[in-house]
Amino acid sequence: MIDQLLGNWVCWVILLTSLVCYQQLMLQFFQYKHTNETTDQQLCSVLISALPLLGLLGTIIGLLQCFAEMATGNIVGDTLSGGIANALLTTQLGLVCAIPAWLLQAYLHSAQAIQKAHSNKQGEHYASAP
């Protein structure tokens, strides 16, 4: 499996995108914890959304390679099943990287919304005080 990961350029793109995405999420998390400030999360949202699509791209590329080999007639069962498994690996990797990032981002959105509502409530309290 490690050989499949290392030999597939789409897996490298998914891993590098995940690295940037998780770095952005961690920066947002620590910034929120220490300053209670919100930051622009659009880049992170785009990267998270791209991860499963990159996995799908890898699957399509792998399946097209398998079908091209089948068209030549020089393919045996082991090679075909290995090619399909290799193709599906990118989809799995994209989803495995994207799902925890979606969950972490949802937590950050929720925590920031609660903090903002709490701040607004305190501001109204002080504004209405005599």
TrEMBL record:
Q: Tell me which Pfam families the record gives.
A: MotA_ExbB
Instruction: Give the source species.
Output: Marinagarivorans cellulosilyticus
Q: Does the keyword Repeat apply?
A: no
Q: Where are the transmembrane segments?
A: 6-22, 43-64, 84-104
* Name of protein: Biopolymer transport protein ExbB
Q: Where in the cell is it found?
A: Cell membrane; Membrane
Could you list this entry's UniProt keywords, alphabetically sorted.
Cell membrane, Membrane, Protein transport, Transmembrane, Transmembrane helix, Transport
Which terms in the GO cellular component ontology are assigned? Answer: plasma membrane
Primary localization class, coarse: membrane
Q: Name one GO biological process term.
A: protein import
Tell me the membrane topology, using the record's own terms. Multi-pass membrane protein
Q: Which residues form the MotA/TolQ/ExbB proton channel domain?
A: 35-112
